[in-house]
């Protein structure tokens, strides 16, 4: 065969795999209710914005290195995160934050609760994407929340400080390659921020390289969204024509929704990179939630892992069933959990709840309307048990339908 033929075959395989991946991505994106999560996050962010800003200002004040550039930090924050109606939104938020300083104990407690509500909503949305347990130990949750709420402002401060120092020392012009490199710094810092979000917040183990890929995609989409949103608001001032002086509020709300959509797209992309396997759609097991052989195999694999002190997560199990889609695997595991066979620990690993020495294969079969697998397809140790059952069914069911139809009730 000529080399060009093999090249075309490879290109066709890449295109087919890419198309299958994006079909899988959009299926999981809808299955995870990401559009609803983005809407919930937008409204929660609107409520939590003032306490978050007050916390950020308090952190900047606590560090002398950032105290002198706190105004520039806030300007940079709004410039990077709010592409339209920035001055109006910034003025509103500053006014609210200034009034928040005068609150008494109950008022401050309410602001803290509002900020925590945002973190809880973010964690819930990402856990839904990763199919992870919704809750973790309280001390671990507080550690994650505190890390995000404190490290976020510090990363922003470091980004602005580094950029300012480079600009001051290098005296770069606005046409050379060095200036172009400097323009990439916001993208790089956004990539780091998204990567840390995908690594730290989900209650699951996330590979660093996949989190970086998702963070880079989110940062690129975020920059495109900023440019596109600014161009749209500038050229088509619909909101100003309808809302007048209040236009900044709906504009900001729409932008929050777009921002969270970008964040969830990157999170879903990271998860799909971790779980996608080529050919899973074509070779998927039909009606897997009623497959007795699959349920038995999952229990066996989890029990063997427990026996060897090696707990298995859903991703570990997926590697043993490459033809099974993650959504189907999740359904089967949820059924086994609901029937009392499995449980999950805080890390997301699956555990066997019932003692296999005290429960039989019949107990598993009766716990759910399972279909008996064909002896030729079942696991080796099940074949001697299924063969006589299959032969008995063949003998019992070898009755003409007409005889059954004509039988008296």
From TrEMBL:
Its main location: membrane. One of its GO terms (cellular component) is plasma membrane. Keywords: Cell inner membrane, Cell membrane, Membrane, Transmembrane, Transmembrane helix. It is a multi-pass membrane protein. The chain crosses the membrane at residues 46-66, 103-122, 143-164, 184-201, 241-267. It is found in: Cell membrane. Belongs to the UPF0761 family. NCBIfam families: yihY_not_rbn (TIGR00765). This is UPF0761 membrane protein MIN45_P0662. It comes from Methylomarinovum tepidoasis. The lineage of its organism: Bacteria, Pseudomonadati, Pseudomonadota, Gammaproteobacteria, Methylococcales.
């Amino acid at each position: 065969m000529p080399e060009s033929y093999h090249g075309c075959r490879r290109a066709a395989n890449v295109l087919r795999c890419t198309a299958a991946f994006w079909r899988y991505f959009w299926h999981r994106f809808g299955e995870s209710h990401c559009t609803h999560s983005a809407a919930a996050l937008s409204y929660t962010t609107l409520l939590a914005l003032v306490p978050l800003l007050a916390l950020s200002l308090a952190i900047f004040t606590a560090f002398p290195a950032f105290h002198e550039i706190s105004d520039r930090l806030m300007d940079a924050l709004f410039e990077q995160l709010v592409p339209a109606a920035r001055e109006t939104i910034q003025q509103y938020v500053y006014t609210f934050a200034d009034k928040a300083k005068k609150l008494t104990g109950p008022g401050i407690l309410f602001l803290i609760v509002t900020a925590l509500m945002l973190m809880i909503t973010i964690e819930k949305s990402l856990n839904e994407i990763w199919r992870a347990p919704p809750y973790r130990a309280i001390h671990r949750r507080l550690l994650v929340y505190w890390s995000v709420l404190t490290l976020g402002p510090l990363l922003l401060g470091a980004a602005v400080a580094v950029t300012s120092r480079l600009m001051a020392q290098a005296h770069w012009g606005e046409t050379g390659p060095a200036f172009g490199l400097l323009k990439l710094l916001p993208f790089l810092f956004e990539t780091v921020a998204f990567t840390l979000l995908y690594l730290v917040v989900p209650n699951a183990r996330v590979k660093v390289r996949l989190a970086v890929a998702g963070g880079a995609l989110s940062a690129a989409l975020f920059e495109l969204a900023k440019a596109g949103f600014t161009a749209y608001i500038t050229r088509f001032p619909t909101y100003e024509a309808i809302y007048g002086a209040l236009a900044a509020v709906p504009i900001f709300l729409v932008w929050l929704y777009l921002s969270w959509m970008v964040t969830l797209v990157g999170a879903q992309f990271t998860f799909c990179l971790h779980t996608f396997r080529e050919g899973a759609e074509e070779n998927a097991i039909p009606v897997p939630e009623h497959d007795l052989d699959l349920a038995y195999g999952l229990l066996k694999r989890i029990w063997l892992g427990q026996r060897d002190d090696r707990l298995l997560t859903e991703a570990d199990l997926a590697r043993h069933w490459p033809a099974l889609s993650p959504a189907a695997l999740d359904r089967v595991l949820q059924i086994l959990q609901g029937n009392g066979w499995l449980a999950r620990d805080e890390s997301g690993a699956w555990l066997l709840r019932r003692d296999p020495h005290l429960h039989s294969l019949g107990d598993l079969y009766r716990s759910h309307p399972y279909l008996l697998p064909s002896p030729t397809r079942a696991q080796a140790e099940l074949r001697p048990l299924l063969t006589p059952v299959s032969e008995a069914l063949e003998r019992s069911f070898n009755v003409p339908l007409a005889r059954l139809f004509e039988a008296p009730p």
